[in-house]
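One such given next:

>
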Amino acid sequence: MREAKKFEWDISQVKKVFVHSISPDVKIVRNVERKISLEVELSGFKKDIEEYEPKVRKEGERFELDLFPHSQFFPDGFFAFGFMKFGGLEIEDVYLKIPDDLSTGIDTTSGDLSINGLSFDELRISSVSGEIEIDSKVKNLFVKTTSGNLNFRGSSRIEKIDVQSISGDLEFSNPSFRLGIIKTTSSDIKITGMDPDFETLDVRTISGDFSISFKSRPNTHVEIDTVSGNIRSDVKVKGIVKGSFDVGKPSSTLKFKSISGDAHLEFGFDIVNSKDDERLKIFEEILKSKRATKDEIRELMETLGYSKEKIEEFLSGK
């Protein structure tokens, strides 16, 4: 049989919450009351469902919730990290409501995790293969994942982001933070619409690719160290694999270090790379030799993907 069960706990004095899960998908949303509300979708034998009760430990300002079924084989105070099945019982889905402004820790193995509409003083997540989606306000964010992907959508200023991953891809949309540390093995990292007002972003990867774009042009010092990775930027860094350059008058530092991972850095300038340089030289020679008209070159450049602004800038000087 399949049935939903609900539980609720008052946490008026609690400042830290820890949630332990394994395989079920977990959705976490905001509770306007100073309570934790839990709804679990269970399947299995009727008796097992009736007897199901999560483990709870409450000590002072700390509240700990373990979704593993309560039983005589796992006494109170023991927090299990085995299978989410017990006998004929299985936890299918979890819906959790918690209040704002808590320091929250969540660990899971293979279940997907979705966190929406909350405000956290601190959020720590540990996952093996589950997908992680965060769309909440967070003052400090710490994530460790093995192969699960992370999708973070920023909506407020973050003091620090610290993310570590083996192979799960990492995506950040419109983040705003002071300090950022991202370390991966083969994960691809994509940051779009980043707030240019940051202090340090340190990205380190073995073979994962990294791309970043900003909401507006930053003033930053860029340090690059890669063995065989390719670097593409709208600031001219042709052929650079190790070294540094400045964008504007630096008030921040962006570091990228890899073995073979590529980087694509967009600071708000027109893209410039070695292929563009070679093509523009060819177009210039064709125009000088009168082998083609400006309209023909314009059409060719549009086909190759050049922006209208870039095309007009090139042709206006000819």
